[in-house]
Structures are given as structure tokens and as C-alpha cells.
Design goal:
The complex is a heterodimer of chains A (508) and B (181). With 508 residues, chain A is an alpha/beta fold. Chain A folds into 3 domains: 192 residues, Rossmann fold (3-Layer(aba) Sandwich); 136 residues, no CATH class; 108 residues, no CATH class. Chain A contains 21 helices and 13 strands. In chain A, helix 16 packs antiparallel against helix 19. Chain B has a single domain, classed as P-loop containing nucleotide triphosphate hydrolases (Rossmann fold, 3-Layer(aba) Sandwich). In chain B, helix 3 packs across helix 5. The longest helix of chain B is centred in the middle third of the chain and has 18 residues. The chains are: A alpha/beta (508), B alpha/beta (181). At the A-B interface, helix 1, helix 4, helix 8, strand 10 and helix 17 of A face strand 1, strand 2, strand 3, helix 2 and helix 5 of B.
Chain lengths: 508, 181
């Protein structure tokens, strides 16, 4: 087991670095000396002094900026060991300084904020340097006195190289002192009795295992906080990893029961290109609704339009861009447009696209972007209201796929089936027939969902799909379900579906 | 036998991961936050450094553990740990960030293997400040990346909003759950 000393880091930063080291070098463990509030250099106990390499946050050690005195203190802390030094800002002058490094001592400078890869590479180099230096450096380090005020070793001349640590290393015997051997033996015995101690290996699964096994009531992340009672020696990665979720390995590799996502067909059409016409062909009675009539009129123009109601109220819509500009909040807008007579009286005037911004600003207190509201949400709400007491009757079929998910958190009156249908139709094209086959007890809910998605511009209609009356849709949903149904017969999948149901019950 | 499942929340600093977990959790979220003292200081007084932890207890006895990943890129090695055997990813994006689509790309790229094995849902916070277009742009980008456009505006403080996101995530994993054959 090799030790790396972490000093001057915040608790959480140290935890993260410890985990990183544990993930990458499982035979390494970290000794962490907490950052002092005063940013003073903490005293190194024997275990800290025995570390072969260090990761030091210079700011956390009160040495953000370079000075000869700080350089001396830093050299004492490192005591000839290779180190990753975390610097702040422009480096505080450290990068330009020439430190009197010991022979073979490697320093890796890493600027904050660093990347995982940057820090990992720096630690790797330092670790390799430490391995090359052992045993002389280790012996020197072990014999080095703790860095304490008043107990500082002789000041190293910054102008002389090689510097004192190397000289010390050469002068002092390489043999491990008896006291250190005794300490190591004690450490070994302690580890056998209680494998998890404050300096336990920060193995990758230490986080998952400790946290998963003991949901921390108020305790921070497990990596640095030693559990009050000894925990078992970390099990092999896979076994531990699979513990939280009782799934066989094969299942764990792919949790999803969904068929692969299908890319939107290139010939799929949106509202302005025939989707609304296809929808109205399947649901011809919708044409009787003033709002649908208005929608047809607006979409027929395909550009921005000014809509006037009476003498005062006016909106600007831009179907292709997907917004409606209004000085009213959405709730007031909805209230207004829910009055069929008002909707029938709307006068629509095409706007020159070059002047649309100017028109919007003129009408809505100089606002342009702030006046815009998402047209799909407003349309969904309005059409949903119109269809509330309507029994939808279809005369044919159409195939569609969602290009946007309905903005459910902002929509009223949506249920679990809406979310489920959206999840299906966002993943692959579906025909009305397929959806009805999958959810035969929810005919009106399915039809309502289809109408809302298409008329709100959330869905694109796929022309190749069945649109003629009486056409029979290919059983895509049923096909997709077949392997799913087969999979569902497996006990573990059935168990997971039981879990999903339980979760949904809690969420809805 | 009661089982334990995991959901992972990821996203840039200040996107609302901790709040989202708090909204869903049955316990007070264990927050491993520290004073931000680097480049994120301008965004937030504190930021998640190691991870957040919340818990949903189900009537069946099963548990869903909610993990928030560190927002800073330098802790990205934690992401692998937290996603191991998780059910799916709730990606929280700040609608008012300079480039939410770039944030989306970054996270989807980082988590792509995980997403392909599980499911992804995107919650866009602060959309009232960032403009309604963010959802459109994010949805378009998801489709361009070959993913279902499961993106919604959300308020991380709202349990109902967060529940909707999780529902969408679960149906993304098992779209035909409870469908009649």
C-alpha cells in the first residue's frame, strides 16, 4: 500500500481527489490533513510524513503567492517528496519561481479550476516519480521532522541546488527506523481489525457502497467521513456495484425495455406543410370549431400575422418560429381565447417578416422577446379546452412522431397516459391504430392526445403512413411490444415493472 | 423483497439539481456543499462538490435513491461512479445560461453510453428568464443526436414538475408498461 498526502484542500475537494486516486490506483490510499481555518500548515503526524507523494493546495496552506519564506515552508512540507501543487489565479508567482528540488523530486503544477484529466495526469507523474525515488526519499521523509512553527529544519538556500532534502536523504540511513516499523505493524493490525479507518482506501465503490449501504441521515458524503463502525473490506467492484439494484449483470448492462429510438423520417411534415390537413382529414368534425378554423387560417399563411380582437386586443403569431406575442399573461390570453365568439371575430392580417419585430415592440411596450410565449403550450391548452366535452370520432388513420415533448409541467389537465403516450411517440413513429391497439380502453384519451400533439405543432405527420379511411396500420406498436412482453415474463423484469408501478403511484 | 434503485441528476452549476432532489426526496437531502471559491462563485454562493443524496420511499418497500452529480467539470470522474446501475439520467439545464444547447451537448456526450442503456429526460430551469426558445432548441438538438426529445420547462422547486420529469424518464425506460397486449 502506498500513501499520498492531501493537504490544504477543502473537505469535499479532498474527498473527490481521494475517490479519484482510489479509482485509478487501487493500491494507493490517501492521508488527508484538513485545511485549517487560519490556513496554517497543519502538523504532519507519522502517517502523513510516511506518504510518498503529496497533493497540496497552496491557497489552503496559506501560500497562495510565492515568497522566499513561503518557498521555504513549502519545501519543508514536501520534505523532498514529489507533489502536485494546486495554484490559483495566475499562479501567484510560483510558476516562475525556481524551487530547490531534491534529486528526482517531481513537481506537477495544476491551476485551479482543474479538469479531472489534468489532475489525474499530474498525480500519475508524481506517483511515478515517487516510485522511482523510493526507498531513499521515503526514508528521508520518514525521518524528517514535522513542519511545525519553531521546529523548522535549517533554511534551504533557494540559490543552491541540489537542496537540503536530497542531502538529507543521502546523509540519513535508508533503513526504516524501528519506530516506523512498529507504526507500520500497528497500522497493519488495525487494518485487519477495522479495515475502514480515516485513511482507508478511497476505492471507487467506497462512495456507492458506503452511501448505499448506509443511507446517510445527516452525514455528508461517505468518502472522507469515517463511518462510526468498521465496514467490511470493499468487495470486488462488480459485486458491490450490483448490490443496490437486484438485477443480473446482463440486465444491469441495459436497463431500458424500450425499443431503439427512431430518427424522424425525412419526409415527415409539420403544421404548415400538411400535418393539420392530414389531421382534419381524420377528424373532420374538428373543422366546426372556431379555434381550429382560426388555426387553419394562421397556418395557411405560414408567416407572422397580426390578430385583432375587437378594437383593443391584438396578438402577433409566428407559427413557423413557434411563438405568440401578447401583452397579456398566458392565463389571461387563454381566458380571452376560450370565448368562441371572440375567436370567431378575430381578424388576421399578414405581417411583413421584416417588420414583425417593429410591430411587436410598438404594440407591447417595446418588448420583443419578452412578449413572446410558446405557441405550442397556448395551442395545447386552448384546443384541449375546446375538446373537453367533445367525443372525437376518427375517419381514418395517420402516423406521426413527436419532434418536441409536450411541456407537461406547464400544462393543465394532463394525466399519466399523456406522459406515457408522449414517451412512446417521442421515441418512434406511431399510428393512431397502433396506439389504440396498445391502449384499447383509453380510446378518447389517445385520440385527444393525437389531436393536441399535431395541432400544437409538437408532432410531425409521416406521409407514408395510413391516412385513408379504414386503412389498417402496420402493427408497429404491437411489434415493439412483442419483445417487451416476452422480456416482461422474466421475473426480474416483472419485478422491475412492479417497482415502476409503485413509483408511478407515488408520483401521480 | 424490497429493492433499491438509483436515479442520477446531472447538469451545470446552478441548474437546480440539489433543489430538484430536495423536491422529490422523502428525507432531507444530504448536501455535500462547500463554499465556492473558484470560477463558479459568481453563479452561486455554494456548490455541490461531491454529491447530493435524497431518497424516495415507495409503498412497496422499494427505495429510489437520488444522486446529484457535482456540477463542476473537474469532478466528472464522479459521474461514472454515480451512474453505475442507475435507472436513468435527469439532466437539468439552465435556460438562462449563455448556451444551454452547448451544455446539453457536453452532458449528453459525457453520459452517452449511460443514456443509451437507460433513459434521459431534460428539465430546463429558469426558462422564464432565458426565453421560451430554449426548449425548442434543446428538443431539436436531442433529435439531431438521435435521442427522443424529452425536454420540458421545469421549476426545480416544484415537486409536481419534478415528478413529471421522473414519470417521463420511467416511461422512457419502459414505454409500453401497462399497455394491453
Amino acid at each position: 500500500m502506498k500513501n499520498i498526502l492531501l493537504m490544504g484542500l477543502t473537505d469535499h475537494e479532498a474527498a473527490a481527489v481521494e475517490i479519484m486516486i482510489g479509482m485509478n490506483w487501487r493500491d494507493h490510499r490517501c492521508i488527508t490533513l484538513k485545511r485549517e481555518l487560519s490556513l496554517a500548515i497543519p502538523e504532519q503526524h507519522a502517517a502523513a510524513r510516511s506518504c510518498e507523494a503529496c497533493v497540496l493546495d497552496l491557497f489552503g496552506l496559506g501560500m497562495r503567492k510565492y515568497s522566499p519564506a513561503n518557498a521555504t515552508r513549502l519545501m519543508e512540507v514536501m520534505a523532498g517528496r514529489p507533489a502536485v501543487l494546486l495554484t490559483w489565479g495566475d499562479g501567484g508567482g510560483w510558476l516562475e519561481a525556481k524551487l530547490p528540488l531534491a534529486k528526482g523530486q517531481h513537481i506537477g503544477w495544476v491551476g485551479m479550476p482543474y479538469t479531472s484529466a489534468g489532475l489525474r495526469d499530474a498525480i500519475k507523474k508524481v506517483k511515478e516519480a515517487a516510485e522511482r525515488m523510493v526507498p531513499p526519499a521515503a526514508a528521508a521523509v520518514a525521518a524528517a521532522p514535522a513542519a511545525m512553527p519553531g521546529r523548522a529544519r535549517p533554511v534551504v538556500s533557494l540559490d543552491v541546488e541540489p537542496a537540503l532534502p536530497a542531502a538529507v536523504a543521502e546523509a540519513e540511513p535508508a533503513a526504516v527506523p524501528a519506530w516506523r516499523r512498529a507504526m507500520e505493524l500497528a497500522d497493519q493490525l488495525k487494518r485487519k481489525a477495522a479495515p475502514v479507518v480515516s485513511a482507508r482506501p478511497a476505492a471507487r465503490a467506497a462512495v456507492t457502497e458506503a452511501v448505499l449501504a448506509n443511507p446517510p441521515a445527516r452525514r455528508p458524503a461517505a468518502p472522507v467521513a469515517p463511518p462510526p463502525t468498521p465496514a467490511p473490506e470493499p468487495a470486488p467492484m462488480r459485486a458491490r456495484a450490483s448490490a443496490p439494484m437486484p438485477l443480473p449483470k446482463a440486465q444491469a448492462s441495459s436497463v431500458s425495455l424500450a425499443p431503439p429510438a427512431t430518427r424522424m423520417a425525412t419526409d415527415a411534415v409539420g403544421l404548415g406543410k400538411g400535418a393539420l390537413a392530414a389531421l382534419l382529414q381524420v377528424f373532420p368534425l374538428l373543422r366546426d370549431q372556431p379555434l381550429i378554423g382560426l388555426t387553419e387560417k394562421i397556418i395557411g399563411h405560414d408567416g407572422p400575422m397580426l390578430l385583432r380582437i375587437g378594437t383593443d386586443a391584438a396578438f402577433v403569431t409566428h407559427t413557423r418560429a413557434g411563438w405568440l406575442a401578447s401583452g397579456l399573461p398566458v392565463s389571461a390570453l387563454l381566458k380571452l381565447l376560450r370565448t368562441p365568439r371572440l375567436v370567431e371575430s378575430v381578424r388576421a392580417e399578414p405581417l411583413d417578416p421584416d417588420h414583425v419585430e417593429e410591430t411587436v415592440r410598438q404594440r407591447f411596450d417595446g418588448k420583443f422577446h419578452r412578449a413572446q410565449k410558446p405557441l405550442d403550450v397556448i395551442t395545447w391548452e386552448l384546443v384541449s379546452d375546446v375538446m373537453r366535452d367533445m367525443k372525437l370520432q376518427r375517419q381514418g388513420d395517420l402516423t406521426f412522431q413527436l419532434r418536441r415533448f409536450p411541456n407537461f409541467p406547464m400544462l393543465a389537465g394532463v394525466g399519466p397516459l399523456d406522459v406515457q403516450l408522449a414517451a412512446i411517440c417521442a421515441r418512434m413513429p406511431q399510428s393512431i391504430s397502433e396506439l389504440l391497439r396498445a391502449f384499447p380502453k383509453h380510446e378518447q384519451d389517445v385520440l385527444r392526445f393525437v389531436v393536441l400533439c399535431v395541432v400544437s405543432g409538437l408532432a410531425k405527420v409521416i406521409p407514408g403512413g395510413p391516412v385513408a379511411a379504414g386503412a389498417v396500420a402496420p402493427p408497429r406498436a404491437a411489434q415493439a411490444q412483442a419483445p417487451v412482453a416476452a422480456a416482461a415474463r422474466k421475473p426480474e423484469v416483472a419485478a422491475r415493472r412492479g417497482f415502476f408501478k409503485s413509483l408511478m403511484d407515488k408520483l401521480f | 423483497m424490497a429493492s433499491i434503485y438509483k436515479l442520477v441528476f446531472a447538469g451545470p452549476v446552478g441548474a437546480g439539481k440539489t433543489t430538484a432532489i430536495q423536491s422529490l426526496s422523502d428525507i432531507e437531502v444530504v448536501r455535500t456543499e462547500a463554499n465556492a471559491s473558484d470560477d463558479v462563485k459568481t453563479l452561486k454562493k455554494t456548490t455541490t462538490v461531491a454529491m447530493d443524496y435524497g431518497l424516495m420511499k415507495l409503498a412497496s418497500g422499494d427505495q429510489v435513491r437520488l444522486y446529484g452529480t457535482p456540477g463542476q467539470k473537474r469532478f466528472d470522474f464522479m459521474w461514472d461512479i454515480l451512474t453505475e446501475n442507475a435507472l436513468g439520467l435527469v439532466l437539468m439545464l439552465r435556460g438562462n445560461s449563455p448556451d444551454p444547447v452547448a451544455d446539453l451537448r457536453t452532458y449528453v456526450t459525457e453520459f452517452r453510453d449511460f443514456i443509451d442503456r437507460t433513459s434521459l429526460v431534460v428539465g430546463i430551469t429558469h426558462s422564464d428568464q432565458g426565453g421560451w426558445q430554449t426548449r425548442q432548441m434543446v428538443s431539436r438538438e436531442l433529435v439531431a443526436m438521435g435521442l427522443p426529445p424529452t425536454a420540458m420547462d421545469t421549476d426545480a422547486r416544484s415537486r409536481a414538475h419534478m415528478a413529471t420529469l421522473v414519470k417521463a424518464l420511467i416511461y422512457g425506460i419502459d414505454p409500453f408498461n401497462n399497455a394491453e397486449e
